[in-house]
From TrEMBL:
Keywords: Membrane, Transmembrane, Transmembrane helix
Superkingdom of the source species: Bacteria
Transmembrane segments: 6-35, 47-68, 80-105
Name under which the protein is recorded: Uncharacterized protein
Length: 417
């Protein structure tokens, strides 16, 4: 029995020396497979250092704490098992480092691809959303609806024309049969005449119904075409104008007014478009509406659309005037605030530059004392005493807080000169 222990802990018990040999062969096989896999795999930075470090640590641990067997003959199997185990651990660590790094790189690349795909999908969704919003605002679906209605009317008109041609052919055949030689005695001729008459009546009835349906379809197509500009304007109406009026922000009034002016231009363009549509599809509709021919003309699709557009232009024109008035009030308020600020700054500067009456009084007192000293030192200056007295009087007046200004004092001094 051969005991294999590490740092006093029993790892495995081998039953015979053959088991020890098989353990050495297994550890060597692990090391060989690891080295072979490393050579076959692309080089990975740090793999050699990791493998060498792991092998050195395992060898050091084996030399310190590994024991295979007991007695004096245990050194050789211990060294053999330690070296084989160190080689296997180093190769395994290097393989784990290499393939782990490759797996991490592959996972990172897959994550990057998924992130890029998600970003592309998000960009595509945003692009499609922006395109759908632009198409909705531009009224592409309304144009498609108008075109579909026109196509349906064209097909119906062609069918009605074909039905009219068939009725005309039947009428011509019936007239030819009536103008031919009369053969009242033949039952076949009378039956054919009855069939032709019945077919002509049915064709006339179907043609009348088709013409009524065509007229209704043309009216519906005209209504769709005339309402398309109005529906497009309802989608593109400037909603920030009401927000600007609600907040009355000085920075939001000018853009709102500009958007309203642009929208009013679109309203006028829509009126021109409706007039063109009505003139092209129903040439007499606008003239009848202008001349007030009757209630039917006044309630036509073109007249209703023009009336709605006129009401919209009036409403948004009044809103534009209100915005301009609010903008004028805001600019006036800003100008008043600037004036108040300038006046406040000027009053502060004036207060800072105001002349202190006490300082003037002290100045006059100092001048009076100087003149008194000069008069005492030079009595021949006869006018100096009078000047000193005047200055003393002025100083006394200032000390009493009399309403004596500096200009009045200077005028008095000039009179004494």
């Amino acid at each position: 029995m051969i005991d294999v222990s590490l740092l006093g802990w029993l790892l495995i018990t081998l039953t015979s020396p053959l088991s020890l040999v098989l353990l050495l062969v297994a550890l060597g096989s692990v090391a060989y497979l690891g080295v072979t896999a490393l050579e076959a795999a692309p080089r990975q930075r740090g793999a050699r250092a990791v493998g060498t470090g792991a092998a050195a640590c395992a060898l050091a641990a084996g030399m310190i704490g590994l024991r295979v067997g007991a007695g004096a003959g245990a050194a050789v199997p211990t060294a053999a098992v330690g070296i084989a185990a160190a080689a296997a651990i180093g190769a395994t660590a290097a393989c784990a480092w290499t393939f782990g790094a490759r797996a991490a790189a592959a996972l990172g690349a897959a994550r990057a691809r998924r992130s890029a795909a998600a970003l592309r999908a998000g960009d595509e969704r945003r692009r499609l959303l922006a395109a759908s919003q632009r198409a909705y605002a531009e009224g592409d679906d309304l144009a498609a609806e108008t075109a579909s209605a026109d196509d349906a009317v064209a097909r119906l008109r062609a069918a009605v024309g074909a039905l009219a041609d068939a009725r005309a052919a039947l009428e011509a055949k019936r007239a030819g049969a009536q103008d031919g030689p009369r053969s009242e005695t033949r039952p076949e001729a009378s039956a054919l005449a009855e069939d032709l008459a019945r077919a002509c009546d049915e064709a006339a009835l179907k043609l009348s119904m088709g013409q009524r349906v065509l007229a209704a379809a043309e009216a519906a197509a005209l209504r769709i075409a005339c309402n398309a500009p109005l529906r497009r304007l309802l989608r593109r109406r400037p909603r920030e104008a009401t927000q600007a009026l609600a907040t009355l922000g000085a920075g939001a009034l000018a853009p709102a007014a500009a958007s309203l002016e642009a929208f009013l231009g679109e309203v006028r363009a829509a009126r021109v478009e409706v007039m063109e549509i009505a003139g092209r599809r129903a040439p007499g509709a606008l003239g009848a509406v202008d001349s007030a021919a009757g209630p039917e003309a006044a309630e036509g699709p073109a007249a209703l659309a023009l009336r709605e557009l006129a009401a919209m232009e009036s409403a948004y024109g009044a809103l534009l005037e209100r915005l301009r008035l609010a903008e004028l009030h805001a600019s006036t308020r800003a100008s008043v605030e600037q004036v108040e600020s300038a006046a406040g700054a000027l009053s502060a500067t004036a207060r800072a530059a105001a002349i202190d009456p006490a300082a003037i009084g002290a100045l006059v007192t100092e001048i009076a004392r100087a003149e008194s000293a000069i008069a005492a030192a030079a009595p021949e200056a006869g006018g100096s005493r009078a000047l000193a007295e005047a200055l003393a009087a002025g100083s006394a007046a200032l000390d009493r807080s009399d309403a004596t200004s500096l200009s009045e004092l200077i005028a008095a001094l000039r009179e004494l000169r």
